[in-house]
Amino acid sequence: MSTATVVNQPRSHLFTCLACQVVFTTAESQRVHYGTDWHRYNLKRKVAELPPVTSEVFSQKVLAQQAQNNDAERKASFSAECIACNKIYYSENAYANHLQSNKHKAAEAKAAFEGTTRTKKNVIGVRTTPQIPNENELIDRKIEVAIALDEFDCLFCTQKFESFDENMRHMTKIHSFFIPEIEYLVDSHGLIKYLGEKISIGNVCLYCPKETKNLESIRRHMIDKGHCKIAYETEEDIMEFVEFYDFTSSYPDADDDDDNWVFVSDDEAENDDLPKIMAYEEDMELVLPSGKRLGHRSLRRYYRQNLRPIEERDSIINRLITEYSDNSGCGQSEGILITNDHMYKHYQPHFIASREKKLQQDYDTRIGVKANKLQRYYRAQIM
Protein backbone atom coordinates (compact mmCIF):
# COMPACT_ATOMS: atom_id res chain seq x y z
CA MET A 1 0.00 0.00 0.00
CA SER A 2 1.12 3.49 -0.72
CA THR A 3 1.85 5.74 2.19
CA ALA A 4 2.48 9.41 1.99
CA THR A 5 5.37 11.17 3.59
CA VAL A 6 4.66 14.16 5.73
CA VAL A 7 7.81 16.04 4.81
CA ASN A 8 7.28 19.63 3.48
CA GLN A 9 3.50 19.12 3.14
CA PRO A 10 0.77 20.87 5.05
CA ARG A 11 -0.91 18.72 7.74
CA SER A 12 -4.34 19.48 6.36
CA HIS A 13 -3.57 17.46 3.19
CA LEU A 14 -2.64 14.18 5.06
CA PHE A 15 -5.02 11.28 5.83
CA THR A 16 -4.00 8.95 8.69
CA CYS A 17 -5.01 5.52 10.07
CA LEU A 18 -4.52 5.44 13.82
CA ALA A 19 -4.98 1.65 14.03
CA CYS A 20 -2.17 0.90 11.56
CA GLN A 21 -0.21 4.11 12.22
CA VAL A 22 0.17 4.99 8.52
CA VAL A 23 -0.41 8.17 6.53
CA PHE A 24 -2.12 8.53 3.13
CA THR A 25 -1.96 11.41 0.68
CA THR A 26 -5.49 11.01 -0.65
CA ALA A 27 -8.85 10.18 0.84
CA GLU A 28 -9.42 7.46 -1.76
CA SER A 29 -6.33 5.51 -0.71
CA GLN A 30 -7.46 5.83 2.91
CA ARG A 31 -10.90 4.38 2.09
CA VAL A 32 -9.30 1.46 0.21
CA HIS A 33 -7.04 0.80 3.19
CA TYR A 34 -10.01 0.58 5.53
CA GLY A 35 -11.34 -2.41 3.54
CA THR A 36 -8.13 -4.47 3.71
CA ASP A 37 -7.47 -7.47 5.98
CA TRP A 38 -4.39 -5.73 7.33
CA HIS A 39 -6.49 -2.87 8.73
CA ARG A 40 -9.06 -5.25 10.27
CA TYR A 41 -6.27 -7.29 11.86
CA ASN A 42 -4.76 -4.18 13.46
CA LEU A 43 -8.19 -3.11 14.70
CA LYS A 44 -8.51 -6.43 16.56
CA ARG A 45 -5.03 -5.97 18.01
CA LYS A 46 -5.96 -2.46 19.13
CA VAL A 47 -9.03 -3.80 20.95
CA ALA A 48 -6.77 -6.36 22.65
CA GLU A 49 -4.38 -3.50 23.56
CA LEU A 50 -1.61 -4.90 21.35
CA PRO A 51 0.70 -2.82 19.15
CA PRO A 52 -0.02 -2.79 15.38
CA VAL A 53 2.03 -4.81 12.89
CA THR A 54 3.51 -3.58 9.65
CA SER A 55 2.35 -4.64 6.21
CA GLU A 56 5.40 -6.93 5.73
CA VAL A 57 4.81 -8.78 9.02
CA PHE A 58 1.12 -9.20 8.21
CA SER A 59 1.98 -10.70 4.79
CA GLN A 60 4.30 -13.24 6.43
CA LYS A 61 1.54 -14.23 8.88
CA VAL A 62 -0.91 -14.72 6.00
CA LEU A 63 1.52 -16.96 4.10
CA ALA A 64 2.21 -19.05 7.22
CA GLN A 65 -1.52 -19.51 7.85
CA GLN A 66 -2.11 -20.60 4.26
CA ALA A 67 0.68 -23.17 4.50
CA GLN A 68 -0.79 -24.49 7.75
CA ASN A 69 -4.24 -24.80 6.18
CA ASN A 70 -2.82 -26.67 3.20
CA ASP A 71 -1.03 -29.09 5.51
CA ALA A 72 -4.23 -29.69 7.48
CA GLU A 73 -6.16 -30.41 4.29
CA ARG A 74 -3.50 -32.86 3.18
CA LYS A 75 -3.64 -34.68 6.52
CA ALA A 76 -7.43 -34.73 6.43
CA SER A 77 -7.40 -36.45 3.04
CA PHE A 78 -4.76 -38.99 4.15
CA SER A 79 -5.78 -42.65 3.98
CA ALA A 80 -3.56 -45.69 4.48
CA GLU A 81 -4.48 -49.38 4.53
CA CYS A 82 -2.55 -52.31 5.97
CA ILE A 83 -3.59 -55.45 4.10
CA ALA A 84 -1.67 -57.80 6.40
CA CYS A 85 -3.51 -56.61 9.50
CA ASN A 86 -6.75 -55.63 7.69
CA LYS A 87 -6.78 -52.11 9.18
CA ILE A 88 -7.26 -48.59 7.77
CA TYR A 89 -5.55 -45.48 9.16
CA TYR A 90 -6.41 -41.82 8.56
CA SER A 91 -3.43 -40.37 10.41
CA GLU A 92 0.19 -40.41 9.30
CA ASN A 93 1.50 -40.79 12.84
CA ALA A 94 -0.80 -43.71 13.63
CA TYR A 95 0.11 -45.42 10.38
CA ALA A 96 3.85 -44.92 10.94
CA ASN A 97 3.61 -46.28 14.50
CA HIS A 98 1.68 -49.30 13.23
CA LEU A 99 4.38 -50.10 10.66
CA GLN A 100 6.98 -50.14 13.45
CA SER A 101 4.91 -52.35 15.78
CA ASN A 102 5.82 -55.98 16.45
CA LYS A 103 2.29 -57.15 15.65
CA HIS A 104 2.52 -55.76 12.12
CA LYS A 105 5.97 -57.24 11.57
CA ALA A 106 4.75 -60.65 12.73
CA ALA A 107 1.79 -60.47 10.35
CA GLU A 108 4.07 -59.57 7.45
CA ALA A 109 6.44 -62.41 8.29
CA LYS A 110 3.55 -64.89 8.40
CA ALA A 111 2.37 -63.81 4.95
CA ALA A 112 5.84 -63.61 3.41
CA PHE A 113 5.38 -66.86 1.46
CA GLU A 114 2.64 -65.30 -0.66
CA GLY A 115 5.15 -63.05 -2.42
CA THR A 116 2.91 -60.00 -2.35
CA THR A 117 3.24 -56.73 -0.51
CA ARG A 118 1.00 -56.82 2.54
CA THR A 119 0.87 -53.06 3.17
CA LYS A 120 -0.24 -50.34 0.81
CA LYS A 121 -0.62 -46.60 1.26
CA ASN A 122 -3.43 -44.70 -0.46
CA VAL A 123 -3.36 -40.88 -0.42
CA ILE A 124 -6.23 -38.52 -1.32
CA GLY A 125 -8.77 -41.29 -0.87
CA VAL A 126 -7.54 -43.34 -3.88
CA ARG A 127 -7.64 -47.06 -3.03
CA THR A 128 -7.37 -50.20 -5.10
CA THR A 129 -9.32 -53.28 -4.07
CA PRO A 130 -7.06 -56.30 -3.36
CA GLN A 131 -7.79 -59.60 -5.03
CA ILE A 132 -9.88 -61.79 -2.73
CA PRO A 133 -8.84 -65.47 -2.79
CA ASN A 134 -11.50 -68.15 -2.86
CA GLU A 135 -12.54 -70.22 0.13
CA ASN A 136 -10.38 -73.26 -0.70
CA GLU A 137 -7.25 -71.14 -0.99
CA LEU A 138 -7.96 -69.53 2.37
CA ILE A 139 -8.43 -72.94 4.00
CA ASP A 140 -5.21 -74.31 2.48
CA ARG A 141 -3.31 -71.19 3.51
CA LYS A 142 -4.63 -71.41 7.06
CA ILE A 143 -3.66 -75.09 7.32
CA GLU A 144 -0.11 -74.28 6.19
CA VAL A 145 0.31 -71.40 8.63
CA ALA A 146 -1.48 -72.93 11.66
CA ILE A 147 0.43 -74.89 14.29
CA ALA A 148 -1.19 -78.33 14.50
CA LEU A 149 -1.43 -79.94 17.95
CA ASP A 150 -0.57 -83.61 18.38
CA GLU A 151 -1.50 -86.09 21.10
CA PHE A 152 1.37 -84.91 23.32
CA ASP A 153 0.20 -81.25 23.42
CA CYS A 154 -2.33 -80.00 25.93
CA LEU A 155 -5.51 -78.88 24.21
CA PHE A 156 -6.14 -75.99 26.60
CA CYS A 157 -2.68 -74.58 27.42
CA THR A 158 0.83 -74.41 25.95
CA GLN A 159 2.32 -77.34 27.88
CA LYS A 160 3.81 -80.29 26.00
CA PHE A 161 4.48 -83.72 27.54
CA GLU A 162 6.72 -86.63 26.71
CA SER A 163 3.98 -89.25 26.84
CA PHE A 164 0.31 -89.45 26.00
CA ASP A 165 -0.65 -90.64 29.50
CA GLU A 166 0.99 -87.62 31.14
CA ASN A 167 -0.90 -85.32 28.82
CA MET A 168 -4.22 -87.00 29.65
CA ARG A 169 -3.56 -86.83 33.40
CA HIS A 170 -2.71 -83.14 33.10
CA MET A 171 -5.87 -82.27 31.13
CA THR A 172 -8.04 -84.31 33.50
CA LYS A 173 -6.61 -82.84 36.70
CA ILE A 174 -5.93 -79.24 35.70
CA HIS A 175 -8.65 -78.57 33.10
CA SER A 176 -11.30 -81.11 34.26
CA PHE A 177 -11.32 -82.70 30.80
CA PHE A 178 -13.08 -86.05 30.42
CA ILE A 179 -13.97 -88.35 27.55
CA PRO A 180 -17.59 -89.63 27.43
CA GLU A 181 -18.16 -93.41 27.33
CA ILE A 182 -14.45 -94.07 27.61
CA GLU A 183 -15.11 -97.79 28.14
CA TYR A 184 -16.04 -98.04 24.43
CA LEU A 185 -13.18 -95.84 23.17
CA VAL A 186 -10.78 -97.75 20.88
CA ASP A 187 -8.66 -94.95 19.36
CA SER A 188 -7.79 -92.47 22.09
CA HIS A 189 -4.69 -91.14 20.28
CA GLY A 190 -6.70 -90.44 17.14
CA LEU A 191 -9.44 -88.72 19.14
CA ILE A 192 -7.02 -86.35 20.90
CA LYS A 193 -5.24 -85.61 17.63
CA TYR A 194 -8.57 -84.82 15.94
CA LEU A 195 -9.54 -82.51 18.80
CA GLY A 196 -6.16 -80.77 18.53
CA GLU A 197 -6.67 -80.11 14.81
CA LYS A 198 -10.18 -78.83 15.50
CA ILE A 199 -8.82 -76.33 18.02
CA SER A 200 -5.56 -75.27 16.35
CA ILE A 201 -6.58 -75.24 12.68
CA GLY A 202 -10.33 -74.64 12.82
CA ASN A 203 -10.21 -72.47 16.00
CA VAL A 204 -13.55 -74.00 17.05
CA CYS A 205 -14.68 -74.65 20.62
CA LEU A 206 -15.11 -78.32 21.57
CA TYR A 207 -18.43 -77.78 23.34
CA CYS A 208 -20.14 -74.91 21.50
CA PRO A 209 -19.99 -73.61 17.89
CA LYS A 210 -17.89 -70.58 18.91
CA GLU A 211 -15.19 -69.67 16.34
CA THR A 212 -12.26 -67.29 16.88
CA LYS A 213 -9.31 -65.97 14.87
CA ASN A 214 -6.43 -67.83 16.51
CA LEU A 215 -5.49 -70.63 18.90
CA GLU A 216 -4.92 -68.40 21.94
CA SER A 217 -8.36 -66.83 21.81
CA ILE A 218 -10.23 -70.16 21.48
CA ARG A 219 -8.25 -71.60 24.41
CA ARG A 220 -9.09 -68.57 26.51
CA HIS A 221 -12.77 -68.94 25.57
CA MET A 222 -12.93 -72.62 26.60
CA ILE A 223 -11.20 -71.96 29.93
CA ASP A 224 -13.32 -68.90 30.78
CA LYS A 225 -16.62 -70.55 29.83
CA GLY A 226 -15.81 -73.97 31.29
CA HIS A 227 -16.03 -75.62 27.87
CA CYS A 228 -13.04 -77.93 28.38
CA LYS A 229 -15.20 -80.91 27.44
CA ILE A 230 -16.56 -82.71 24.41
CA ALA A 231 -20.09 -82.02 23.17
CA TYR A 232 -21.77 -85.43 23.42
CA GLU A 233 -25.48 -84.73 23.84
CA THR A 234 -27.22 -84.67 20.47
CA GLU A 235 -27.11 -87.31 17.76
CA GLU A 236 -24.99 -85.04 15.55
CA ASP A 237 -22.40 -84.71 18.31
CA ILE A 238 -22.20 -88.48 18.74
CA MET A 239 -21.86 -89.11 15.00
CA GLU A 240 -18.87 -86.73 14.89
CA PHE A 241 -16.80 -89.07 17.09
CA VAL A 242 -18.32 -92.45 16.18
CA GLU A 243 -15.22 -93.53 14.23
CA PHE A 244 -13.17 -93.52 17.45
CA TYR A 245 -15.60 -95.80 19.36
CA ASP A 246 -16.64 -99.44 19.17
CA PHE A 247 -20.01 -100.25 20.74
CA THR A 248 -20.22 -103.90 19.68
CA SER A 249 -19.59 -105.02 23.26
CA SER A 250 -22.87 -103.37 24.30
CA TYR A 251 -24.96 -105.47 21.90
CA PRO A 252 -27.22 -108.17 23.43
CA ASP A 253 -25.35 -111.04 21.71
CA ALA A 254 -21.90 -109.72 22.59
CA ASP A 255 -21.39 -112.29 25.39
CA ASP A 256 -21.72 -115.29 23.10
CA ASP A 257 -18.68 -117.44 22.60
CA ASP A 258 -16.90 -116.50 19.37
CA ASP A 259 -15.17 -119.89 19.16
CA ASN A 260 -18.36 -121.48 17.85
CA TRP A 261 -18.39 -119.28 14.76
CA VAL A 262 -17.29 -120.75 11.43
CA PHE A 263 -16.22 -118.29 8.76
CA VAL A 264 -17.26 -119.25 5.23
CA SER A 265 -16.79 -117.64 1.85
CA ASP A 266 -19.44 -115.71 -0.02
CA ASP A 267 -20.15 -118.60 -2.39
CA GLU A 268 -20.71 -121.00 0.49
CA ALA A 269 -22.93 -118.50 2.22
CA GLU A 270 -25.19 -118.26 -0.81
CA ASN A 271 -25.76 -122.01 -0.83
CA ASP A 272 -26.31 -122.21 2.90
CA ASP A 273 -29.83 -123.47 3.67
CA LEU A 274 -29.78 -122.61 7.36
CA PRO A 275 -32.96 -120.89 8.56
CA LYS A 276 -32.63 -117.15 8.78
CA ILE A 277 -33.11 -115.49 12.14
CA MET A 278 -35.21 -112.40 11.72
CA ALA A 279 -36.35 -109.67 14.06
CA TYR A 280 -39.76 -108.13 13.64
CA GLU A 281 -41.23 -104.83 14.72
CA GLU A 282 -44.34 -104.67 16.89
CA ASP A 283 -45.94 -101.53 18.39
CA MET A 284 -42.80 -99.39 18.03
CA GLU A 285 -40.71 -102.17 19.61
CA LEU A 286 -38.11 -104.35 17.96
CA VAL A 287 -38.41 -107.94 19.18
CA LEU A 288 -35.13 -109.84 18.98
CA PRO A 289 -34.93 -113.61 18.45
CA SER A 290 -33.86 -113.95 22.08
CA GLY A 291 -37.17 -112.47 23.19
CA LYS A 292 -35.79 -109.13 24.32
CA ARG A 293 -37.64 -106.02 23.26
CA LEU A 294 -35.92 -102.83 22.11
CA GLY A 295 -38.03 -99.70 22.40
CA HIS A 296 -37.91 -96.64 20.19
CA ARG A 297 -35.86 -93.72 21.48
CA SER A 298 -38.88 -91.40 21.22
CA LEU A 299 -40.52 -93.42 24.05
CA ARG A 300 -37.54 -93.45 26.41
CA ARG A 301 -39.27 -91.09 28.84
CA TYR A 302 -41.91 -93.78 29.42
CA TYR A 303 -39.40 -96.63 29.73
CA ARG A 304 -37.59 -94.74 32.48
CA GLN A 305 -40.70 -94.59 34.67
CA ASN A 306 -40.73 -96.82 37.73
CA LEU A 307 -44.40 -97.52 38.36
CA ARG A 308 -45.54 -99.54 41.32
CA PRO A 309 -47.56 -102.71 40.60
CA ILE A 310 -51.32 -102.45 41.00
CA GLU A 311 -52.48 -103.98 44.28
CA GLU A 312 -55.46 -106.34 43.94
CA ARG A 313 -55.73 -107.86 47.45
CA ASP A 314 -58.98 -107.03 49.33
CA SER A 315 -57.23 -106.37 52.64
CA ILE A 316 -54.99 -103.74 51.11
CA ILE A 317 -57.90 -102.15 49.27
CA ASN A 318 -59.99 -101.91 52.47
CA ARG A 319 -57.05 -100.38 54.34
CA LEU A 320 -56.59 -97.75 51.66
CA ILE A 321 -60.31 -96.91 51.73
CA THR A 322 -60.18 -96.56 55.53
CA GLU A 323 -57.17 -94.26 55.38
CA TYR A 324 -58.88 -92.16 52.73
CA SER A 325 -62.02 -91.87 54.89
CA ASP A 326 -59.95 -90.86 57.94
CA ASN A 327 -58.11 -88.18 56.01
CA SER A 328 -61.36 -86.75 54.63
CA GLY A 329 -62.97 -86.48 58.11
CA CYS A 330 -65.62 -89.15 57.59
CA GLY A 331 -65.95 -91.90 60.21
CA GLN A 332 -62.81 -90.82 62.11
CA SER A 333 -64.05 -91.82 65.57
CA GLU A 334 -65.77 -95.06 64.72
CA GLY A 335 -63.49 -96.27 61.94
CA ILE A 336 -66.42 -98.14 60.37
CA LEU A 337 -66.22 -99.11 56.72
CA ILE A 338 -69.60 -98.61 55.07
CA THR A 339 -70.41 -101.53 52.81
CA ASN A 340 -74.16 -101.23 52.06
CA ASP A 341 -76.91 -98.67 51.66
CA HIS A 342 -78.64 -99.48 54.99
CA MET A 343 -75.58 -98.67 57.10
CA TYR A 344 -74.90 -95.58 54.99
CA LYS A 345 -78.38 -94.20 55.77
CA HIS A 346 -77.89 -94.97 59.48
CA TYR A 347 -74.60 -93.08 59.79
CA GLN A 348 -75.34 -90.33 57.25
CA PRO A 349 -76.56 -87.68 59.80
CA HIS A 350 -73.49 -88.20 61.95
CA PHE A 351 -71.18 -87.88 58.97
CA ILE A 352 -72.85 -84.68 57.83
CA ALA A 353 -72.73 -83.11 61.30
CA SER A 354 -69.10 -84.07 61.78
CA ARG A 355 -68.14 -82.62 58.42
CA GLU A 356 -69.99 -79.35 59.07
CA LYS A 357 -68.37 -79.02 62.49
CA LYS A 358 -64.92 -79.56 61.05
CA LEU A 359 -65.52 -77.01 58.28
CA GLN A 360 -66.71 -74.44 60.85
CA GLN A 361 -63.63 -75.02 63.00
CA ASP A 362 -61.37 -74.62 60.02
CA TYR A 363 -63.15 -71.40 59.04
CA ASP A 364 -62.87 -69.92 62.57
CA THR A 365 -59.20 -70.80 62.80
CA ARG A 366 -58.45 -69.30 59.39
CA ILE A 367 -60.28 -66.05 60.19
CA GLY A 368 -58.65 -65.78 63.62
CA VAL A 369 -55.14 -66.28 62.34
CA LYS A 370 -55.65 -63.97 59.38
CA ALA A 371 -56.98 -61.02 61.44
CA ASN A 372 -54.99 -61.85 64.60
CA LYS A 373 -58.12 -61.34 66.72
CA LEU A 374 -58.08 -64.38 68.96
CA GLN A 375 -59.36 -62.59 72.08
CA ARG A 376 -63.05 -62.78 72.88
CA TYR A 377 -63.45 -59.07 73.64
CA TYR A 378 -60.94 -57.61 71.23
CA ARG A 379 -60.99 -53.87 70.64
CA ALA A 380 -58.70 -51.96 68.33
CA GLN A 381 -56.36 -49.66 70.23
CA ILE A 382 -56.82 -45.96 69.38
CA MET A 383 -53.77 -43.69 69.52
UniProtKB/TrEMBL annotation:
InterPro entries: Matrin/U1-like-C_Znf_C2H2, ZN622/Rei1/Reh1_Znf-C2H2, Znf622/Rei1/Reh1, Znf_C2H2_jaz, Znf_C2H2_sf, Znf_C2H2_type. It comes from the Eukaryota. GO terms for biological process: ribosomal large subunit biogenesis. Gene3D superfamilies: Classic Zinc Finger. It is found in: Cytoplasm. The keyword S-adenosyl-L-methionine does not apply. The keyword Cell division does not apply. One of its GO terms (molecular function) is zinc ion binding. One of its GO terms (cellular component) is preribosome, large subunit precursor. Its main location: cytoplasm. Pfam families: zf-C2H2_2, zf-C2H2_jaz. Residues 82-104, 154-175 form the C2H2-type domain. Keywords: Cytoplasm, Metal-binding, Repeat, Ribosome biogenesis, Zinc, Zinc-finger. Belongs to the REI1 family. This is Zinc finger protein 622-like.
